[in-house]
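Following up on my earlier thread - several people asked me to post the actual chain instead of describing it. Fair enough. Here it is, all 160 residues.
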Amino acid sequence: MRRWTVLVLGLLLAACVSLSGPPAERPIDSTGKRIALTFDDVPRSSGAFLAIEKRAELLRAALRKAGVKQAAFFVNPAQIAKRPEGAAHIKAYVADGHVIANHTASHPGLSKTDIADYIVDLDTAAAWLKGSEGYRRGSDTRFSTRAMPTKPNAMPSAQR
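Reply from S.P.:
Thanks for posting it. Predicted structure:
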């Protein structure tokens, strides 16, 4: 299922790039509204269609072609232990002007994890990200939503 999601998102991004024309031809939005383009679970592993290196290269090229000046990449630092080349991809995204943010260290499911353990996982990722070029502190955390809690006040931020 995740592979299809990545494929569909990639195709949508490619469609947006091809339909929108070069950046100079696009109308300027005078309303001040913006769209945030974000990517979760970085660094990603190889998929059914693309190796990890090719995916990162094509994504960066598509963002440049579309004139995207800044996207946010939500990082799972524990993935770098599994894929050391992922650190280079993260640095490349930052070098292109994009920002990185916290998506937990190991992507635990919140409904299956004790709140204290989840907060430790968030803080582990924050410690890895702290001082990293491109890291934006503040409202930078994307909670792992594959198993969101159903109880009120169950989000880790509500527990702090």
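The chain has one domain: 36-159. That should answer part of your original question.
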